[in-house]
Amino acid sequence: MSTTSIYDRGLDKNAANYAALSPLTFISWSAEVYPDRPAVIHGARHYTWQQTYTRTRQLGSALVRRGLRRGDTVSTMLANTPEAYEAHFGIAMAGAVLNALNTRQDADSIAYILQHAETKVLITDREFSPVIAAALAKLDVKPLVVDVLDPEYAGPGEPLGDLNYEALLAEGDPNFAWSLPNDEWDAISLNYTSGTTGRPKGVVYHHRGAYLTALSNVVESSLPRHMVYLWALPMFHCNGWCFPWSVAARSGINICLRKVTAAGMFDAIRQYKVTHYCGAPFVHSTLIEAPAEMRQGIEHKVSSLVGGAAPSQAMIEGMARIGIDLTHIYGLTEVYGPTAVCAKHEEWANLGSGAQAERNGRQGVRVMLEEGMKVLSPTTLEPVPNDGETMGEIMFRGNCTMKGYLKNPEATAEAFAGGWFHSGDLAVSDPDGYARIKDRSKDIIISGGENISSLEVEDTLYRHPAVLVAAVVALEDTRWGEVPCAFIEPRPNMSVSEEEIIAFCRARLAHFKAPKRVVVGVVPRTATGKIQKYVLRQQAKDDAASRR
After folding, report:
1. How does residue 71 score in pLDDT terms, banded at 50, 70 and 90?
2. How far apart are CA 300 and CA 286, in angstroms?
3. In the chain, what are the domains?
């Protein structure tokens, strides 16, 4: 039987009826329709949408003139500044791929990423010069280094490159005739996430997924035209959960914030009438714990998303108490960040605070623009019953899912086995179909929204001369969601202290990866010598409860 129909003849795609989906269209639209409205505010620097669009075109043009071509990688090591925002558009205008580096990473990890990504240009803020200099020293082939000299930063840090960012822009054409990608499947960004091997994996996003996730944010957060967005979430974190593109889609205002403090956030919310922000649990905890006088003068509604770890009942109640509407979202780097939402129901407002918090703290349901999110049996890929008890694995499929892992076809095939992206998060499905995480199949610790590989920390611990056996698990933490907890068994006739181990790790790892708690004693193992991590997780849980 023929698979064609009358609708398949003479109705082909052409320039008049088809264009590749790309978030680059959002900034050109805002510059065309609202050229004089504010787009980016950072201290004394204020840019309109026309000015921001011009700067991104100059960046794209300058990169092309420097020899960059389709598929080349441009890495950035930036705080939340106008340059970080512009990078989300200008680099793609050149056909290149943005790799936003985690500013908390150590030199070894950065050097690995720069080499693995084959970075051609590195744009770096001088605040991060020490770690970048150490990373560059490890490379045989070094990228072109461009320094960002932010007037709002007055701390230490020497420029490392041959030119600064403004000089690079001056090389570019403000009327650069950029074009959409020929294929919306083309890569737009590259984000690295820690895997169970300890080495970060490069997650590749495409233009189509970035476009649809940005619009998904608009829909799920009900973002109004000209909303005011405060950058408390790092733009390097899953490309700021794709909100750089979402804000452009609504011609909103980006309020940049280099450092996240309660005083800085409340001042910005008050001064600029901020309407929306996103953040990991520790960001919200910072606001809840702040003195009440910091909140004085803020009377308008503020909406926020929390992700990276489920919000506690105390956090949900605390945010409601200070007048901020909090919504829990869930996702992973591989699904562009927020791909599930705990969509609220009006009738939940009639429940007690504990029941409300229990419902609002779940991982929830798929966002509307992702085709599928299910709790499936890892072996049969059949949905588990909605009984709130049967364990399965959260899996995703659809347009808001990565292309795959860069240069790692084996890991890509494993992640997509059976036509679903396997999250590695074990969950149950409640009677209303909402997913609720119960455990993690991978030993990844999520601290402040950042992934920490337990194996990477364990590898460091084993370098200590007194360590015989080491194991790392997640320890619940009210500020960071989770922190690393290390269990150490010393070598015979040797001793080691918690303080010594923590200092040892902090000297060799990014500080957020170092254990915050160290337990010295016999590490439980099976008869075959395998460490019983489930026992250690329970010990860590009991330890956290006793400390509370």
Report:
1. very high
2. 20
3. 27-32+45-179 (3.40.50.980), 444-547 (3.30.300.30)
